[in-house]
Structure formats: C-alpha cells, structure tokens
C-alpha cells in the first residue's frame, strides 16, 4: 500500500516524527537549545539568520536594515520558511523561459 499524504501533521506522531524524549511538553515555556548526543549545543536561529539563509538581504538598497511587515515574529518565521530562495526562483524562472521559448518555435527541450 502507498503512504497517505496528510494536510496537517503533529511533530509528536506520524511518519515525520523522530522519537526524542527531550521534546518539551506543549505547556512548557522557555528558551530552548538543542543538545546533540555528543553534548554540543545549538541555539535556535534568529529570524534575521533564517531570512539570510533564504536569500534575503540584511539591509535594503538605501542602507536601512531589513524590516518585515507586521509585528508577529512567528508569522515572519512562517513566511520566511515558506518562501522560495531568490537564486532558486531565478533558476526555475530561467528554465521555464527557455522551455516556453523552445515550444514557441516548435522545438522540444529537455532540461
């Protein structure tokens, strides 16, 4: 049988879950760090670091720092996570353009 694709998922169960007894309970609050098996600790990435990893600049063309619309850090992080990095979007668009131009002149193109 094939796997089922679900529209929602819970990090604590399902095929995407990793059994980790260190996962905090839903009612626990605080600043958490990730401690690997060898004892190395990793802090969560900041919202600006996530934006830079996705290809957003740290400053605007006029020199002002990157400021995202709205006040919700959680929504910023969600939008940053859902975005397509600039370099990937450009590569996709260029491939689409080459394919459409080839089709327009009656050629077949395998990318």
TrEMBL record:
Instruction: Report the superkingdom from the record.
Output: Bacteria
Provide the GO biological process annotations: DNA restriction-modification system; methylation
Q: Where is the composition biased (Polar residues)?
A: 1-16
The GO terms this record gives for MF are: methyltransferase activity
Which keywords are on file for this protein? Answer: Methyltransferase, Restriction system, Transferase
Which Pfam families does its entry note?
A: DNA_methylase (PF00145)
The cross-references to InterPro entries, in alphabetical order and at most eight, read: C5_MeTfrase, SAM-dependent_MTases_sf
Note down the stretches annotated as region Disordered. Answer: 1-22
Q: What is the protein named?
A: DNA cytosine methyltransferase
Natural source organism: Streptomyces daliensis
